[in-house]
Amino acid sequence: MRKTASLALSLFLLTGTAFADSPKDSPKDAPKDAPKETAAKSAKAAAANAATKTNAELAAQMEELRQALQAQQEQLQMLKEELAKRDRQIDEAREAAASANARAAEANTKAVEAVTTSTEVKSTATALNATVSDLKVSNEVLKDTVAGSGQAAANKATEEGPVSIRYKGITITPGGFLAAETVFRTRSAQSDVNTQPFSGIPFNGNPLAHVTEFQASARQTRVSVLAETKIANAKVSGYEEADFLTSSVNSNNRQSNSYALRQRQLWVQAALENGFTFTAGQQWTLATETRKGLQNRTEALPMTIDAQYTAGFTWARQYGFRVVKSFGDKYFLGFSVEEPQTTIGGRGFTTVTVGGTPVTNFFVNAPGNSGGLLNAFDATGYTLNQRPDFVFKAAADPGWGHYEVYYVLRTFRDRVYPCLTATVAAPCPANGATAPSTAGAFNDSRVGGGLGVNARVPLLHKKLDAGIHFFGGDGVGRYGSSQLSDVTARPNGTLALIRGGQALGTLEFHPSPKLDVYMNAGWEYAFRTAYLNAAGTGGVGYGSQLFNNSGCNVEATFPTNQNTPGASGTCNGDVKDVIEGTIGFWHKYYQGPKGRLQWGIQYSYVVKNTWSAQGGGVGFGIAPNAIDNMVFTSFRYYIP
After folding, report:
1. Could you point out which of 290, 457, 556, 569 has its C-alpha 20 to 30 Å from the C-alpha of 321?
2. What are the tens digits of pLDDT across the range 548-585?
3. Are the CB atoms for 296 and 279 separated by under 8 Å?
4. Do the Cβ atoms of 263 and 546 come closer than 8 Å?
5. What is the pLDDT of residue 374?
6. 530 φ, ψ to 5°?
């Protein structure tokens, strides 16, 4: 208000000054006819009065007026802010009032409910008091129980130990099982728990066909170790697996039953992050079916106790260098270079006697060097291989089932002596000699191979696995469990490939996690591959109708001593096919963190059929066969 009054006073003074300077300010009572001198005097007086006000006074008044106006504006701004603040407070008050009303309504509702349930609350409080009392009583017992459980868990962890061992950045995982097994055969195969081979079941003319056989063995006990580590962008693995299904020259059953350790698998592997896997060493052939992709250690082996598995199963464990490419873990391509070997069959090959010694016009194998590491006591010997076997394979895991197609490329070679039969009538073309000689000897090579397919699918909500397997071609007999022949020889000594193959159907039931039941039906076949000899009077090769089978079912000789049975009569029957049916089960008595304890029984029925031949000049069509029934038992403990 003080500033307002000052402002009004200033305006009044300014107005008064203005009126004083104006002519209209002359006194009203001055006469109109006053002399001009009087007017002049008044003007001079006014001018003199105005002159007394200095410029400084006017400036001070103007400054005071400016400050008063500025103060007025500040007051107006303050009033505006106060009004805005009051409006906000009013809005907040309204919201608080609304919220208070809502809470009051809720509180009123709860109060009503509280009044209604007061009786129940009292009852519940009484029960809670009793429960708290009980908890206090059992609290110490609970503490003791928890402490005991913790100690038990610690003891259990100490007892079980780690599944794998860590050593300098390498994870080492032991494996294998201990086995106690038996086999009973109605015809003696003079074999352990591996029926080696199925094609060796004796005919009726063999004395062993008339005695049963019982063998008890722990030799299928298996030990293994897997070592894994990471190097750069590769997972590197090494795997070793061995059992005792072998023998050295001094192994026997008389007292210590000591048999040598046998190498089953021994390989190293590098799996790269780009999907390539490289594996080298002794492993299952790439032709053997796997359960997942083309990965090692996922081979789909028959569930048999028989360590020779079953007729119709395609397999070998041999050196291989394998390359596999994975495409999204669903499709796979593989290639391997593998150790070859040739099995030769048949008879009637061209021979003559030179210097009192029978000789023939070719050879395929040679015995091992007794001073080296090859077995010098094996009657068949080792093939003088020209090049390795090559296996190409594609596999798919599309989401239901596992499927494979593969091809095995093989090469066979022998050394031929064309002048072995040189005579005066037909001298040696190499040098004109009329006596047998080594002149003109040459190497003969043949290329064979076969195509295979495998398929395995889950059925009945994975309670049943069904599999179909086939492998057939020229010179593929060695890849079957029955070990039928790959090749035979023509009269001139060159090799002839035997067409054949293997087929197998499998059913594996899993009615419960502890029980597996399996059934196999297998078949292996070798075609007749026969020729006439140079004179046209006899058969040469494999399965000739001119061979003599008359003595296959006749015991013809006495034992040569108490340890050597006699033999049948003349029996040249070459195997046409081997058929086996197998049924068995495995019961897992225990399976948990301490390993697996299981037992099983297997029954096999095996039939060996031969190509028909003559009976010593008395007719044709004699095709002897042999049948064996086998029962296996097994009791095993697998380490965890």
Report:
1. 457
2. 998 999 999 999 999 999 999 889 889 999 999 999 99
3. yes
4. no
5. 87
6. -130, 155
Cβ 428 vs Cβ 437: under 8 Å: yes
The segments of the chain whose pLDDT lies below 70 read 1-54, 97, 100, 104-105, 107-162, 616-620
Strand partners, 443: 415
Distance of CA 470 to the CA centre of its chain: 23
Find the helix packing angle between 55-116 and 118-160, rounded to 10°.
90
Strands 331-338 and 170-185: unpaired
252-303: per-residue pLDDT in tens?
888 888 899 999 999 999 999 999 999 999 999 999 999 999 999 999 999 9
Express the helix, strand and coil content of the chain in percent, nearest 5 each.
25, 40, 35
- Please give the structure tokens belonging to residue 243: 């059992």
Task: List, for residues 9-55, the tens digit of each pLDDT value.
Answer: 444 444 444 444 444 444 444 444 444 444 444 545 444 454 445 67
Which string of DSSP letters, residue by residue, matches 377-403? Answer: T-SS-EE--SS-EEEEEEEE--SSSEE
CA 278 – CA 230 distance, rounded (Å): 15
d(CA 142, CA 137): 10
* Residue-level length of the chain: 640
Cα Rg, the chain, nearest whole Å: 54
What are all long-range contacts of 515-518, with beta carbons under 8 Å and residues at least 24 apart? Answer: 515/585, 515/586, 515/587, 515/588, 516/303, 516/585, 516/586, 516/588, 517/583, 517/584, 517/585, 518/302, 518/303, 518/304, 518/582, 518/583, 518/584, 518/585, 518/586
CA distance 471 to 452: 4
Q: Report how far residue 65's alpha carbon sits from residue 215's, in angstroms, rounded to the nearest whole number.
A: 132
